[in-house]
Amino acid sequence: MSVTVIKSGMLTTLQDRGRYGFQHYGVPVSGAMDLFSHRIANILTANDADEATLEITLRGPRLRFEDDSLIAMCGADLSPVIDGMPVPEGKAVRVRAGAVLDFGAPTSGCRAYLAIHGGFDVPMVLGSRSTYETAHLGGFEGRALRPADVLPVGGAKSSPYPGLAQQIASSKLNFSAPKWAVNQHIEKLGRSPQIVRILAGRHWDAFPAAARDALLATEFRLAVDSNRMGCRLEGSAAVTGGPAEILSEAVTFGTIQIPPSGKPIVLMADRQTVGGYPKIAEVATVDLHLLAQLRPGERLRFELVSLAQAQALWLKREQEMITIREAVGKHLNE
């Protein structure tokens, strides 16, 4: 089984939950920018949680499925179509061999995630299939997709949704989908400004009150030079007055660093392993996917929460994921 890349899109890479256990060697974690959507896409396609998905940024690829396949798309709405017919998101979709998936204009969000039943059969590198382009590590040949690439698909472990196979066999369309869908965006994309919850960071108290107030009161914009390594923010007020630099120390997904310019940088999936800028705050894990779905120029504001609140939000999200998994599981044999 395989998928052929006809057109590569703006930036399409294979990502899973990340490459852990090697940061002390200077190897970034990488992985999906929006783990929430990535996980749901795998649930919908009856995959293991660690299977890689295609992370599709803003302008999507054109893909041809060489075999009958079960797919799901979650995250940003990039106007997916098969044979000119809109393809639903947040659903399991059975596609016929030879079907061509294409994408149009992005209507909300920045990154979509495409999972396929059986997973993409690329080699594990340091325990992960995630692509880290800078070092040409993992994914498909360590890089973003290009035209004429052929992505191998793993063997199906089961035959989920037999009803969809029957539907497509009796239909003229090249795909079929159930009536039900997963409400994938518990916090809807497209809010302006997007509210992102943060916790006080290691150096919060090293900044004057005016700087902390500026971080919370300023409406920031996502800068055009943001990428998978970090979200660079621009606003009317600079966050200044803290320590100019520190001895390099560990950073994580969501660390908010303040460089000498006073313009915050939020570290993301391809972040470095250590950093020497002071860490004023950390994005609550539950809201990292909201940052990942912002497009350049879109606005956000930060809201301070306590560690206990952040933990409660994370536990609520994980319970929602369990509920989604159980609800989808009830439909797998239909």
List keywords for this structure.
single chain, 334 residues, alpha+beta, Cyclophilin, 5 helices, 16% helix, elongated
Secondary structure layout plus pairing:
Elements (H helix, E strand, L loop, with lengths): L1 E6 L3 E5 L19 H10 L8 E5 L4 E4 L3 E9 L2 E3 L2 E2 L5 E4 L4 E4 L4 E9 L33 E3 L9 H8 L5 E2 L17 E7 L8 H9 L2 E3 L7 E5 L14 E2 L4 E3 L7 E3 L6 E2 L3 E5 L4 H5 L6 E6 L2 H23 L5
Parallel strand pairs: 13-21
Antiparallel strand pairs: 1-4, 1-11, 2-3, 3-10, 4-9, 5-8, 5-10, 6-7, 6-9, 8-12, 13-20, 14-15, 14-21, 15-18, 16-19, 17-18, 17-20
Walkthrough of the structure:
- This protein is an alpha+beta fold.
- The strands form four sheets. Strands 13-20-17-18-15-14-21 form a seven-stranded mixed β-barrel. It has a six-stranded antiparallel sheet with strand order 7-6-9-4-1-11, with no helix packed on it.
- The protein has two domains: 2-185, no CATH class; 194-318, Cyclophilin, CATH 2.40.100.
- It contains five helices and 21 strands.
One letter per element, helices H and strands E, the order comes to: EEHEEEEEEEEEHEEHEEEEEEEHEH
Strand content: 25-35%
Report the span from N to C terminus: 24 Å
Sheet with the most strands?
A: 7 strands, mixed, barrel
| Largest sheet: spatial strand order | 13-20-17-18-15-14-21
* Overall outline: elongated
Mean pLDDT: 93
Task: State the secondary-structure class.
Answer: alpha+beta
Number of strands: 21
Number of H- or I-type helical stretches = 5
What would you say about this model in short?
This protein is of the alpha+beta class. It is built from 5 helices and 21 strands.
